[in-house]
Amino acid sequence: MLDRARLTGGLNWYRALGRGPMAAGPVPVPTTFVWSDHDAAVGAAAAQGCAQQVTGDYRFVTLPGVSHWIPDEAPDEVAREVLARMATA
Questions:
Q1: Cα angle vertex 19, ends 15, 20, to 5°?
Q2: Of the candidates 49, 58, 72, 89, which lies 20 to 30 Å from 4 by C-alpha distance?
Q3: How does pLDDT run across 4-25, given as a tens digit for each residue?
């Protein structure tokens, strides 16, 4: 984040999201949502509400004590969930 060009790129991703609901439509593929209960950016209601946008097999996984930076703080748990999902595909 100290590199201005990288910071701008990261911020532009959030800017492109807009302010309204996303209009991607229902997701028909198997989906695993890995969420952390100490996430300051994504609250429980928003995370759990994603299930309503998925018509395929859906799993919601909560990692206790982890912040918003899940892959950095819990890489083994994330890898385990990815491998578990792949095993069902």
A1: 135
A2: 72
A3: 777 888 788 778 776 666 666 7
CA distance linking residue 75 with residue 62, whole number of Å = 14
Strand-pairing partners, residue 60, are 33
Exposed, middle or buried: residue 42 (CB in 10 Å: 0-12, 13-18, 19+)?
middle
Other residues' Cβ atoms within 10 Å of the Cβ of residue 39: 18
Question: Which residue shows structure tokens 């590199």?
Answer: 3
Q: What is the pTM of this model?
A: 0.74
Q: Which residues contact 25 (CB under 8 A, 6 or more apart)?
A: none
Give the separation between CA 35 and CA 31, rounded to whole angstroms: 13
Tell me the two tokens of residue 23: 């209009």
Pinpoint the alpha helices (H) of 1-89: 4-16, 44-49, 70-73, 75-88
88's tokens: 């069902």
